[in-house]
Structure formats: C-alpha cells, structure tokens
Specification:
By secondary structure, this protein is an alpha/beta fold. It has two domains: 217 residues, Rossmann fold (3-Layer(aba) Sandwich); 69 residues, Alpha-Beta Plaits (2-Layer Sandwich), CATH 3.30.70. Helix 3 runs parallel beside helix 5. It starts with a strand and ends with a strand.
Length: 321
C-alpha cells in the first residue's frame, strides 16, 4: 500500500451471508484530496463507507486510517473522522444548537470549546438565525447543513460524506459543494464522498473510484477518465442488426468506446464527432442498422460511468435508470 496515503485499503472483502457486497477492493487516499466513490445501487459503496467509519468489520483485507488499524483502533479512528450518513438523521425535537452541543459533548470537548466551535460552524453553514429553532422546522437543505456542521465539530482530519446532497434542490446542493470545497482548500481536510450526482464528482473530486458489483472497475482523475472516451460522444438510437453494427464500429481505430444502455441508446466515444459521423452512417447502412436519432456532445463523467457500469444516471434527481 502507498505509504503516503492516510486511508489505505488492501484486498478488502465483506459479505452478508451469500451476498458479496465487497468482493475485493483496494484504495489509497492521500492527505488533502477530495475523493469520489461512485457506483450504481448495490455496488458496495455504503458497505465500504461503513467499514471505513468502523461501523462494520471487514471479513478480510487490511484497512488503516491515519495509520490506525481498523480492527484494533476503531475508537481512535472515530475521534479523527467526521461523517454524514446517507439518510438524514437529526433529532427533530432538538434545536440546531443543541445538536452541535450534544455532538461536542460526545467527543469530550470542553464547554467553552463547544460554544466557540458551534458558533463558527453555524456561521459557516448560515444557520445562526435558525440555531434555536427545532430541526423539525428546517427544510431539507437546512437539515443537511446542520448535519455537515455536526460532522465537523471534532475538527476531523478526514470527512466522510455518504450522499451528502441526495434529494436537495440545485441551490442547496451548490451551497453544500461550496462548504465542502472551502474545508478542503482552507483546512487541507481529506474528503471522501459517495454521490449519484456525477456533476458533483466532476466539480469537486481530485480522484474518482468507480465501483460495480463489489469491485473497483475504474479509477483516476475525472479529466483523464473523460479524455479516454475521446473528444466527442455520439449517442444513437435505431433498429436493425445491432450486433453486426457494433462489431463493425469496434474495428475502427478512431472509435474509442462503445456502450449500449438498457433502453437502446448507443454511446460511441470518438476523436471527432462531426468528421466520423458520415462514416458511422455508412457502416450502419452496410450492416442494415437504421439510425433514427443522433446527438453529438462532449463526453462527461456520466459517459465514463455508463461505459464502466452499464448504468445511466438521471442527473436532475441523482437516480439510476
């Protein structure tokens, strides 16, 4: 494992009966980076997060966080990390201020430190005026922001966020992105997040791991992963001899990738969409495949995700198709 990494995972496995949630993964996360862990539902992301946050013990493999062994030093690790969970879990009977106070007490902080720390965090997430209101009166975005503040009470070296903006409207999501980026840039905090919003990963992440069916199927810098697909993505819909059409395309040097979605959309990564489109139409005609719809665009992380997993994501909702 990389000695520079502060999160080191080697050959991690975790099963629940006959369900192999994590078949075998390895991660190396260096200090100060924002890492996105992506994957369709059931890929093993949340199980991975639960292991890294000491909520689950691995079946096998080596896991260390800040040089603490996950099996031997779970209590020490918990004092060094902050986490927000996929499901909103705030006590609706408590005020925002009470939630932060309680969190500080759990970490054994002194009262004066709790007071100053909570004041600073409430200002950061713009909830000072709502601090004395019960959280049952908060909007969804406000609840996620108080959860983020709570996860930062102990001044963690590593912040782990499981779907931090799930279900939020676009302005609330952007706010959360700003807070995450600020903590990383100003404090050098290492951040690991899972998300179904690929725009989120593309904007925030220094490095991406894509999981599918319990294994890592791709990893790298988002920009580099996108470049692998070519300069353009051509999306086609049609009918006819699809397998023959796909095989003929695969033989062409300037075609970088070909994937087909469950609803029949063909994704073709090419070096130049406008120049290669006539050739693709000619191949389609030769192989008796009728193209009915065509679209040319720049590739994005969503195209990378689909190429690796065969799943599409509805960006507006963060949902899988």
């Amino acid at each position: 494992m990389d000695n520079k990494a502060i999160i080191k995972v080697k050959d991690l496995k975790k099963s629940f009966g006959n369900v192999h949630a994590i078949k075998k993964i390895s991660l190396n996360i260096e200090k100060g980076n924002i890492i996105a862990l992506l994957g369709p539902n059931g890929a093993g992301k949340t199980t991975t997060i639960n292991v890294l946050t000491t909520q689950l013990q691995p079946d096998s493999g080596d896991v260390s966080i800040l040089d603490f062994d996950i099996k031997k030093d779970s209590k020490k690790i918990r004092h060094k990390i902050g986490i927000t969970f996929q499901e909103t879990c705030v006590d609706m009977a408590l005020t925002g201020q009470q939630i932060l106070n309680f969190s500080g007490e759990l970490y054994g902080m002194k009262r004066k430190d709790i007071k100053s720390r909570s004041k600073s965090l409430l200002e950061m997430v713009e909830l000072t005026e709502a601090a004395k209101r019960k959280t049952k009166t908060y909007s969804g975005g406000m609840k996620r922001r108080i959860e983020l503040a709570r996860s930062l009470m102990n001044i963690p070296e590593i912040l782990i966020l499981d779907e931090p903006t799930l279900g939020l409207d676009p302005p609330s999501r952007v706010k959360i992105w700003e807070y995450i980026k600020t903590r990383n840039e100003e404090k050098g905090m290492t951040i690991l997040l899972t998300t179904h919003y690929l725009e989120e990963a593309e904007k925030l992440a220094d490095y991406v791991y894509i999981m599918d069916k319990g294994v890592i199927v791709e990893e790298g810098n988002p920009e580099d992963l996108i470049k692998k697909l070519g300069n353009n993505t051509i999306r086609l819909k049609g009918s006819g001899k699809l397998d023959d059409f796909k095989s003929a395309l695969a033989d062409k040097e300037n075609i970088k990738s070909i994937s087909i979605s469950q609803n029949g959309i063909i994704y073709i990564g090419v070096t130049s969409g406008q120049n290669q489109l006539p050739e693709i139409f000619e191949i389609a005609s030769q192989k008796q495949f009728i193209i009915r719809e065509v679209e040319i665009d720049k590739p994005n992380l969503g195209d990378v995700f689909f190429n690796c997993t065969g799943n599409e994501i509805i960006e507006s909702k963060g949902e899988l198709k």
